[in-house]
Structures are given as structure tokens and as C-alpha cells.
Design goal:
- With about 325 residues, this protein is an all-beta fold.
- The protein folds into two domains: about 140 residues, no CATH class; about 110 residues, Immunoglobulin-like.
- About 0% of the residues lie in helices and about 55% in strands.
- Strands 3, 4, 5, 6, 7, 8, 9, 10 and 11 form a nine-stranded mixed sheet that branches. Strands 13, 15, 16, 17, 19 and 20 form a six-stranded mixed sheet that branches.
- The longest helix has 4 residues.
Amino acid sequence: MTLWSGSPGKYTAGYLNVNATDSVTVTNYVYSFSQVVVANHGIVSSVASLSLSTGSPLTINAIVPPAIEEMYGTTNITESSINVAPFPNTTGGILVNITVYAPDAVLNPNVGSNGRNFNVTITNPATHVTTTLTVAEIGNSPYYTGELRVVPAADYSSYAGQRGIISVASGQVNKISVVVDVTTGIAFVNNVQTQFTMTGSSYFYVGSVVAKPTIISSQVVSVSTGQPVTTLTPGQSYEITFAVKNTGNVNATVYAIIEIEVNGTVVTSPAIVITTLSPGQTSFSGTVWTPAAAGTYKVTIILYQNPELSIPYVPGTETLTLTVS
């Protein structure tokens, strides 16, 4: 795109020079001709007329905002909290494709290599890192593309000084911004010579915050012997425990409720155990129970996210069947 940099109100035969944001009214003349033809006499009368027809004002806008798209593989992650890039788990990181639709840059002598490429600025506030990425024209189209490398913060130092590299912090969602701000030329706006810039912004997320406590095992231990058992005896006390591990990537507060029932009837007061687990940490939730009679009992643990016990973790339930004889 080439912006006109001539003087306002000066026109050239054959085409109209306009300011970048002018409102232009197009006026055209309509020539009409009518005639009367009588059989065997030919044309007996004719009338020609010239009328003026004025069209509606036409708004001229020479500036087309760029559109930015981010892709991880075949997944469009542009400004989505659902479709996100995963946390990189290797030194090499992951690649995110940045594509910019920028018709104002095409063949523009004010843009890099006569419109063949330009830079975008990429920032991650979570790690306080900013980098630039060069996006190059795809063929002779208004689309420009480049590959951004996303690496763990712990490995970022190995890429010191390199462009097109951004780091991400673990254990949280990283909102990464992509900004285009490129000068495209000079033109007149309201008779004032003005520098034009191609500006636009977008963002994408890396990582999802996942608090995921998972029940990984259970055990019944005799209080009197300290040994695990598989069959219980009436009148004896037992400690029933469940191992809960946080398999997510952020701290998880767990409200665990444990109930014991037989034939659909709860035989103990529900025990509530509250713990906070860091990623990868395991804790044990349990209760001590003394069965009064023989029977088949079900011990159920449910993991909740809130103290009101209204929002369960999914999955977050397990039932242990015990035989008392």
C-alpha cells in the first residue's frame, strides 16, 4: 500500500487523489434519449435530456487494522481461556505460530524490506520478559508469519540475547501479549500531514491452572497391633486412611468428608479433614472406627473444593468395602 503524500485538493486527470480519511461525494450525469416511431414514417420526434445524479458520500479509509492469530499446532489459541498452549516441559520448549494479517504492509516502502517483513513485540508479565519476533510475508499475500519459542523460566538463561524466545512461569497461567506497532507512511488527515502506524494487539495463554487432588490408595490398620487388616472384628478399633495426592500444578485446599454406612444407613458422624496440598504432595485423610456389629460396611470419602461441601473435585470420590465378622 502506498499512501498519497500530495497536497490536499490537488487532483490528477484520470483519477482522484484523496486524503487517507476523506469523505468523498461521487457525482455523475445521466443522459437519456427518447423517440417516437410511426409505421411507414420512421422517427417522427426525439427528445434528449441530461440530468444530474448525486450519490451518497463515500468514506475513504486507507488504514486497515492488522489482525493477529496465534496457533499451537493445529489449535487456535487466540484470546481463548479454553484452548491454551501447554506448559513446556523440556529445555527446547514449544513453538507457537504468530500470523498477522496486514494489508497495509504489502509493498510498503516504509516497512522492512519494502513490505516483506516487520517485527511484533511479545511480553509475558508473569516472567517480566519481552522479546521481538520478525514475521515474514507469506508469498505475495497480506499475511505475515513467524514461530515463537516458549521455554520454561528455568531454562531461559540458555537463550540469553536471542530474539523470538519468551519464558513462562510454572504453576500459573501465563497471559502472553502480542503487539504490532509499525509505521506505514505519511498522509493527510483533515489537511494535516500525519504519520500513520499499523497497530493491533492480541494475546494467548500458556498453561491451565489445575488443582487436582487424587485418591491414590487406602488402608485399614488395627489400632491395637498397628498392622494392616482385611477383615475387622466387632469391638475392635481401626484406623481407616486414604492417601490423597495433588496431581495438579497449583496448591489445592481439600475438604475431605468420610462416612461409614451399612445397608444405606450412616452409622458414624461424618468426619471432615482439611488439608492444603502443594503440587505433587501427598497427605493422609482418615478416621478411627470401632464397629459394633458384624456386617458389610461401606466407607466413602468425598473431596470437596469449598468448606460448604457443595463443590466436589472430579474425580474425587472413592468407596472402600469392609467386612466385619
